[in-house]
Amino acid sequence: MRKIIPIFLLLALLFSGCLGQVPDSIKELQAVEIRDYNGQNLSSIADFRENSIAGPQYVDINSYSLNIFGLAENQKEFSYEQALNRQKYSKIVTLYCVEGWNAKILWEGILLKDLFEEVKVKPEANTVIFYAYDGYSSSLPLNYVLENNIILAYKMNGLELPPERGFPFQLVAEDKWGYKWVKWITAIELSNDPDFKGYWESRGYNNNGDVSGPKFG
Ligand SMILES: Nc1nc2c(c(=O)[nH]1)N[C@H]1C(S)=C(S)[C@@H](COP(=O)(O)O)O[C@H]1N2
Ligand SMILES: [Mo]
Fold first, then answer.
1. Which ligand is located closest to the Cα atom of residue 53?
2. What is the number of other CB atoms lying within 10 angstroms of the CB of residue 26?
3. Whose CA is nearest to atom 1 of ligand 1?
4. Residue 169 in contact with ligand 1 by CB distance below 6 A
5. 8 A C-beta contact, residue 206 and residue 140
6. 109 CA distance to ligand 2 middle (Å)
7. CA 199 to chain centre
8. pLDDT tens profile 42-100
């Protein structure tokens, strides 16, 4: 009798699947979007309206590079990994679109200032122009970028940027209208042309782009 019980147990375990084969495929657990952070309620990634000039862009990260050129001593092309290989920062910042909606998001990114230190900005540079995969562009004063610790985000609410939201990088242009928040950034030019006009700016939107200022003109 003493020997029989373990055999029954073994059979029971086998039939219940406990000793069955371990499947060799890995089940991916869905990462969860952060919606509360330090007592603050955040918007959701799903709250954005998709109104990009050419629809969502799907950037192949293996052939991707972030090209920093123009008025710099060491113009440089960073792979995604090289760009991410530096101090990371996070901050809750709200995006306000001129169309009347907004989204409060926890952004995680790298400082443009750090990238600029690496390429050694020439003293005559005063403007930063951002170019994107879909042909979009926009610009900001260099001083604004440096003084406000402006970040290039690769995560929002704890998740890697989805393709529709600008993967691999979106500019977090704090206190500026949404049209300054360039998605799918492929190149950054250091320029001495403060009057450069990006996609929406050349179609009548204000070049300063302050949320507290005018939308047009
Ligand atoms: N490359 C690119 N970036 C872009 C845009 C665009 O069309 N192309 N639209 C801008 C605008 S008008 C807004 S409000 C923000 C957020 O747009 P979304 O809701 O389509 O993400 O992205 C900005 N960045
Ligand atoms: Mo917008």
1. 1
2. 6
3. 183
4. no
5. no
6. 21
7. 20
8. 999 999 998 999 999 999 999 999 999 999 999 999 999 999 999 999 999 999 999 99
SS3 187: strand
Virtual CA dihedral for 187, 190, 194, 195, nearest 10 degrees?
-40
Q: What is the pLDDT of residues 184-199, one digit of tens each?
A: 999 999 999 999 999 9
* Assigned token pair, 139: 């610009």
Point out the ligand nearest to the CA of residue 182.
1
Q: Which residue from 66, 164, 177, 181 has its CB within 8 A of the most atoms of ligand 1, so it is best to mutate?
A: 181
Output the pTM of the full model.
0.88
The overall average pLDDT reported for the chain is: 93
What sign does the CA torsion over 169, 88, 160, 93 have?
negative
The CATH topology of domain 39-44+53-203 is Sulfite Oxidase; Chain A, domain 2 (3.90.420)
Rounded distance from Cα 10 to ligand 2 centre (Å): 64
